[in-house]
Amino acid sequence: MPHPRIPDPSRNTSGRLSQMLQPSYMLCRDDVVWALEFIRKKMAEQDSRLKELTQPRLLKNFESFAEVSMMLVHRRSAFDQEADRIKSCLKEASYGLFENEPTSERDSSPAND
């Protein structure tokens, strides 16, 4: 039987990330590392969905990616206390990578953030 913290391996990678971002999901360090690697890989591959995003939105994605990365480096054991913040940043960092996001949201500018 799979470990309860590990997302179902039969799901696709976007599904795995979506599962991790659920409020009830118990996030662990390995999940965060996996999510950051997933996002990095999509950026390196120049995923076509990311090409549709505006430059301010891409900068917001990068800012959130960097924030999670720094949290990982500086707060080694705070996942239970910071899980909601980490999930929020991962959601922002992965913005635009999911096919089911509404187009109007994908193009929104983070200028008001």
3D shape:
globular
Q: So how many helices?
A: 6
Largest sheet: none
Mean pLDDT: 77
Query: Which spans of ≥5 residues are poorly predicted at pLDDT below 50?
Result: 1-10, 100-113
Give the class from helix and strand content and strand pairing: mainly alpha
Order of helices and strands: HHHHHH
Q: Radius of gyration from the CA trace?
A: 14 Å
Strand content: under 5%
Helicity level: 55-70%
Count the E strands: 0
CA-CA gap between termini: 42 Å
What report would you give on this structure?
This protein has 113 residues and is mostly helical. Helices cover 59% and strands 0% of the residues. The termini are far apart. The model is unreliable at 1-10 and 100-113 (pLDDT under 50).
Describe this structure in a few short sentences:
By secondary structure, the chain is mainly alpha-helical. It has helices spanning 13-20, 29-44, 48-51, 55-74, 79-93, 103-106. The termini are far apart.
Key descriptive features of the protein:
6 helices; about 110 residues; disordered C terminus; globular; mainly alpha
Question: What is the strand and helix layout of this fold?
Answer:
Elements: H1 13-20, H2 29-44, H3 48-51, H4 55-74, H5 79-93, H6 103-106
